[in-house]
Write a structure and sequence with these properties.
Blueprint lengths: L2 H21 L5 H4 L10 H21 L1 E3 L7 H12 L20 H21 L7 E5 L3 E4 H30 L1
Antiparallel strand pairs: 1-2, 2-3
Length: 177
């Protein structure tokens, strides 16, 4: 990975982590466990999903890829992935394996798991010498993408769900208010 890609990826990883952390600041256990009227995930379940997905995407990026002799660089596709990853107007069904299943006993435990997984992802990006554009990885929703495109999806995933948490908190405060 070249220095420019590394700096960009690390910044996305940092911003997305911060977005998730900020979205849950001050949440009490009762609020974290409150289910929206539409039957969607609770805030604790959203964080569980993000933590589990981080772990699964890291594993796919670092172990379940194919290597090719030539790199594939499509800046337009990378921009489109970046934009669509944050676009909450399009909803996706999570793969079964990363759906909430009560893996963590609290929001704090789910966040701790996410932080540990994200730290491992950051360390990988800091040390990676491979050209991730020479890898292809199959993403359960995006299909086959380059390793760098997959890294973009992984990096931005928590920010997408941070927006979901903010939407939920706003709705809950409007209902109370």
């Amino acid at each position: 990975m070249n220095d420019s890609d590394r700096i960009s990826a690390l910044e996305l990883l940092r911003q997305s982590s911060s977005a998730l952390e900020e979205s849950v600041l001050g949440i009490e256990p009762a609020e974290a466990a409150r289910r929206p009227k539409d039957g969607g995930w609770t805030i604790a379940e959203i964080v569980e999903h993000v933590a589990v997905a981080e772990e699964q995407m890291y594993t796919a990026l670092t172990t379940r890829y194919r290597e090719f002799p030539e790199a594939t660089h499509n800046p337009e596709k990378e921009r489109a992935i970046t934009q669509s990853a944050l676009d909450r107007s399009r909803k996706f069904n999570s793969p079964e394996v990363s759906r909430p299943a009560g893996r963590f006993d609290s929001l704090a435990t789910g966040l701790a798991h996410f932080r540990a997984c994200r730290a491992r992802t950051v360390a990988f990006v800091e040390q990676c010498q491979d050209d991730l554009r020479r890898r292809t990885v199959k993403h359960p929703l995006a299909g086959v993408v380059t390793g760098y495109e997959y890294l973009l999806i992984l990096a931005l995933h928590p920010a997408r769900h941070a927006a979901q948490i903010r939407e939920q908190r706003k709705h809950f405060s409007e209902v109370r208010g």
